[in-house]
Amino acid sequence: NDSIDLEIRIYEGKQARLNKVSVIGNTKTNDHVVMREIRTKPGDLFNRSNIIRSQRELAQLGYFDPEKLNVDIDPDPVKHTVDVDYIVAEKPSDQINLQGGWGAGRVVGSLGLVFNNFSARNFFKKNAWTPLPSGDGQKLSLTASSNGIYYQNYNISFTEPWLGGKKPTSLTFSLYKSVSSNGQTGDDRESIEISGATIGLGKRLKFPDDYFTLFQNINFQQYELNNSQSFFSYTNGYSNNMSYGITLGRSSVDQPTFP
Questions:
Q1: Are 219 and 245 in contact, with CB atoms under 8 Å apart?
Q2: Domain CATH for 70
Q3: β-bridge pairing 191-204 and 169-181
Q4: What is the pTM of this model?
């Protein structure tokens, strides 16, 4: 007849364990920053899902070119082990935002600098300034905007994504100040100055799944009014405000791209 019976017999061997796990190509980012995001550890059973998730975590960092991110798997069937090499290629990760304009007879401008792979521990090391100390995965942000004597705003923030270096608990600290006025001086000046500080802690959760994050922050603000005709119940003096915020989020975005 015109049919064939085909029987395929598969004999499943001993599950392999990971032997060596290494990273190749990180010329700027320090090894510990990369290795702490990798979910495949020497001695663990080989798990393809953990390798795929590790690739996703490396892409989430934003330090490496996602098109060149690769994994080289070298099995040893005799020893039942597997060597895994994560191959990465550094890419520029810092951001500069410069805006300017002209309106109402004055210049309006803003400048923002974001260093996404900063290294605070090398800040006082002269040789590390190439042009900035980098490689530890910390984030430093500096922003300023103004339209002259009527409005100024300044903000500086710093984030350590792995507080203590052992768990993915992030620490964020920021300082900010804004001044709004009528542009006058002396007794004719009307202004509101807002100064503040924020400290926050973020944590990666394991329930409902490990894509969830929890972020908590405490914010302190001080308002200084000078002949202000605003919605406040007073026109001169100080007032303080303290608030607490909590954010529960979930993100499973794979290889995000900053435009």
A1: yes
A2: 3.10.20.310
A3: antiparallel
A4: 0.86
